[in-house]
Amino acid sequence: MPELPEVETILQSMKSVLEGQTLSSIDVNRLDLRLPFPSGLSTIPLHQPIIRLRRRAKYILIDFQHDWTILIHLGMSGRLFINHAGENLPPRKHEHLVLWTGNKCRIALVDPRRFGMVCLFQTKKEGQQPQLAHLGIEPLSSHFTVQALAEALATTRMPIKNALLDQRRIVGLGNIYVCEALFKAHIHPQRAANSLDKKEMKRLHGFIVEILQAAIAAGGSTLRDYVHTDGQPGAFQNLHLVYGREGECCPICLTKGRSVPVQRITQSSRSTFFCPHCQKNPHK
Length: 284
Ligand SMILES: [Zn+2]
What we know:
Order of helices and strands: HEEEEEEEEHHHHHEE
Radius of gyration: 20 Å
Mean pLDDT: 91
Bound molecules: zinc ion
Helix content: 10-25%
Number of helices: 6
Number of strands: 10
CATH architecture of the largest domain: Orthogonal Bundle
Structural class: alpha+beta
């Protein structure tokens, strides 16, 4: 599933093609993905300048001049392919939505498993949009301070791993990045979210930002279905220290002459990878 860094990478590619342009046509090739395609999608946004592309959590938002916004979520397997004018490639399989710009770029949403979604709403009513209304803090925004992270985690005793995945507290941190940030911060994934002290909170905050920025710089991770808008895979998966490495030696322990295998446990039906030596649970 594309996570925040992948979506941010895709957003940057789309920005360069769409901002300032208009759409000359929108092909809607089926009735629905996870939700039905909105009525009016193929007509309302046409011929209005696109004033801005932005991201909220893992949603891509395309704002049009006359107060309309298209929301795109890539679900499990969604990808966006950009073809520039003159690149006459045959259509791909599972192209469910195609945006054509006035200068003849073609942006295709390909989603074989169809867990993605596309919505259309009036920008001024964004606060009422169900997908956006209850989202927590953006970890790459200036509002994301150590204090803000502490406040988002203060009200729950649920395991820190699960609290960091809770989109109502903090958005866009998927399973990979949570595992990696907790490992680097030396925090056991089963610790109660409200049990972190100030030093731990500061470390965790720093590594969340550092890992997301590193992943964006590397072009996002590539897992299963995800590739860039130009079809190139990202490179961050080569940098994972614990994620997907069950049984391999912890790289930090290894530098200190210890051979400690990375463990995998399941939390809320999702795999967690951690080092039992670097990430001790003081409450056990
Ligand atoms: Zn270790």
